[in-house]
Amino acid sequence: MAIVIMSCKLSFSIYSFLLLLIIVVSPTKGQPNFLYNFCMNDNGNYTANSTYQTNLNILLSNLSSNTQINYGFYNFTYGQNTDKVNAIGLCRGDVKPDACRNCLNNSRVLLTRLCPNQKEAIGWYDSCMLRYSNRSIFGIMEGLPSFFMSNSNNVTQVDQFNQVLGNLMKTLKEKAASSNDSRVKYATGNETGVNLNFQTVYGLVQCTPDLPFQECTRCLDDAIYKIPSCCNNKMGGRVIKPSCSIRFESSLFYDAPLIADTDETSPPRPQEKSKSSHTTTIAIVVPTVVVVLVLLTLIICIRLRKNRHSMAAGSNLEEIEDDDDDIEIAESLQFNFDTIVVATNNFSEANKLGHGGFGVVYHGKLSSGQVIAVKRLSIDSGQGDIEFKNEVLLLAKLQHRNLVKLLGFCLEGKERLLIYEFVPNKSLDYFIFDPIKKAQLDWAMRYKIIGGIARGLLYLHEDSRLRIIHRDLKSGNVLLDEDMNAKISDFGMARLLLVDQTQVNTNKVVGTYGYMAPEYAMFGQFSVKSDVFSFGVLVLEIISGQKISRFLDGQSQEDLLSFAWRNWREGTIIDIIDPSLNNGSQNEMMRCIHIGLLCVQESLVERPTMATIALMLSSYSFTMPLPLEPASSIGGRTRSRPYTQSSEEDKGTISSLESKSKSVNENSSAEYF
Questions:
Q1: Which residue in 60, 286, 552, 613 could disulfide with 108, CB within 3.0 to 4.6 Å?
Q2: Spatial separation of the C-alpha atoms in residues 649 and 36, rounded to whole Å
Q3: How far is the CA of 283 from the CAs of 276, 288, 294, 296, in angstroms?
Q4: Geometric angle at alpha carbon 9, from 7 and 14, rounded to 5°
Q5: In angstroms, rounded to a whole number, what is the distance separating the alpha carbons of residues 168 and 214?
Q6: Secondary structure of 394-444 in the HEC alphabet?
Q7: 154 pairs with which residues across the strands?
Q8: Under CATH, which number does the domain 309-422 receive?
Q9: For residues 568 and 590, is the Cβ–Cβ distance under 8 A?
Q10: Catalytic one among 210, 472, 490, 559?
């Protein structure tokens, strides 16, 4: 009562001022801040009290108050022509309808205040996202603008954690993208690592439901491959884009999904049957089940006996068909051990050519006069019978001028030998990294070598009977024949894919750091694009005459990819080219540098296929896209560009990956590319 009496004594002007102050301040008092927001200026501004502003206010009000939608996705349009407004509201899949509408209402109030006249804006809370624009935004995958947050705590068992995380993200991505419910593309789950002291990793992925399967997958793939840049070795993190988001933590951070992945049209549950009915059912079902189990057991036993000599003991051979044919091929190629001992002069030091991936390579000569190269696998090399048989069977099936030809193999006790055609000019790294010998490789030769490697990879990826991923493509595994033709060698680490497979996970990451794609080094995920990354590194090495790992001024370390990207960005591309290449087509050199940078982009989605690369090398009319910043090869890790500002929230560091606009929340840090 005292307050009312005091208010009545105020003058009208003071009362009006206080009322206005309440109206202005009340929406922001207690109003939570966005995790991040962007106000885009690209699509123009609107003026106060304009038709566009009226349409926007009506649309957002209807969106945040709609009680008919209970699955957290709102895509509304209001207005006509240039005053038409499109809006998307998306709540996290575990957020209840009332909380969802409250979150969207907060977003409506805050976003229009932070972006007072921009026609396009977007803001994210932990529970929801709101975006609006005067352009069409429905059914379109958009990766920009985006940001990430990471937990401040580091993991202790990095490799084991990354393996568990990679498997979990792959599973959740496939589940969300292929959801049967057209209203929700959302998945959560967890995975416990046996080699991670049974620690559990929890994950969440989500797309806007208007995206088709392919676009949802593409968005989530790109977000997942940003993890090494944003959250490497961290116990938690998230990457958030307009069309999708991912998050992982070492503790549970989500509830059960709001809408279960069940068939809502399924018939009602049948009533309980009588006891006599159950008895009859049991009498019929039990004998039937017993008969089926006996038949299955017999079939399995017969199958196992038939394949007792199968060479598919490990995952490297699991996709090979016709095991009996493979055994026949292997037997026809087997050499006698004593024959190889004589050919190599008992593996004398004088006949030693060098070290291969898993042992020593020797020069040899058969009694027929044929010159051979013998790879003698070391007992402790780590390559077991699986890898050995894999290389034998792979090379026996492959015939291409840019692949090293397998002549045979030998098994004698613990001795395992591979006999190849002899390639006289050693390996590529023997020439390009030697300050004197590199002069023997003019640009015409180097361009021919690049083309030969490309043709060999294209054959492995597309034209051979099986789709083959090399996994260890590097300069030491490219041999040069008498005419300096490139021949890809060393298939001990290769993996086979079914024709319709695009990506596989492995628990054993093998290869050479620097040449390994980030998604493979980080998560064990390999595909044809992993080989494309290695090819890009090779191209840049061939052009520059520099190794992938290089030191510049003695204080700062800069790898070859960083060096090439910096000069590309600064317009000093000539500094990338080996000074010994004082003649040759500079247009070809520039084009090859461009191709190399396209191949080593951090996201495999952005890398071209070998078929596209072959077109780029052979046709100058082929228009190439501009490359994005490559991954870093230093220490086998990827990097993000440094930025000086930083802020923390809930022990998480937040920074932007990409942005279309510099109009952002002042309390957030950002990087602009």
A1: 60
A2: 11
A3: 11, 9, 18, 21
A4: 70
A5: 19
A6: HHHHCCCCCECCEEEEEEECCEEEEEEECCCCCEHHHHHCCCCHHHHCCHH
A7: 234
A8: 3.30.200.20
A9: no
A10: 472
Q: What is the DSSP string of 305-372?
A: HHTTT-S--SGGGTT---HHHHHHHHHHTBPPHHHHHHHTTTT-GGGEEEE-SSEEEEEEE-TTS-EE
CA angle (236, 242, 248) in 5-degree steps = 15
**pTM given for the model:** 0.50
In the DSSP assignment, the letter for residue 194 is G
Q: Sheet harboring 200-207: ordered strands across?
A: 185-192, 200-207, 244-249, 237-240, 146-151, 652-658, 648-649
pLDDT < 50 regions, the chain: 1-29, 260-282, 306-322, 496-509, 551-556, 633-673
The architecture (CATH level 2) of 25-133 comes to 2-Layer Sandwich (3.30)
| Distance from C-alpha of 652 to C-alpha of 151, rounded to nearest angstrom | 4
Domain with CATH 1.10.510.10 in the chain: 426-636
210 annotated active-site: no
Query: Do 365 and 465 form a contact (C-beta atoms < 8 A)?
Result: no
Q: Look at residue 450 in the predicted model and tell me its pLDDT.
A: 97
What is the per-residue pLDDT for 377? 79
Per-residue pLDDT tens digits for 184-198: 999 999 998 776 677
CA distance 335 to 412: 10
Task: Cite the residue boundaries of each domain of the chain with CATH code 3.30.200.20.
Answer: 309-422
**What is 426-636's CATH superfamily?**
Transferase(Phosphotransferase) domain 1 (1.10.510.10)
Domain 146-249: CATH class, spelled out = alpha beta
Instruction: State how far Cα 219 lies from the chain centre.
Output: 11
Residue identified by tokens 């992993």 is: 530
Q: Could you tell me if 635 and 521 are in contact, meaning their C-beta atoms sit under 8 angstroms apart?
A: no
> What is the residue whose two structure tokens read 């108050």?
65
End-to-end CA, the chain: 60
In the chain, ranges of CATH 3.30.430.20 domains: 25-133, 146-249
**Assigned token pair, 72:** 């957290």
Q: CA 200 to CA 190: how far, in whole Å?
A: 6
CA distance 333 to 392: 9
Q: How far apart are CA 609 and CA 611, in angstroms?
A: 5
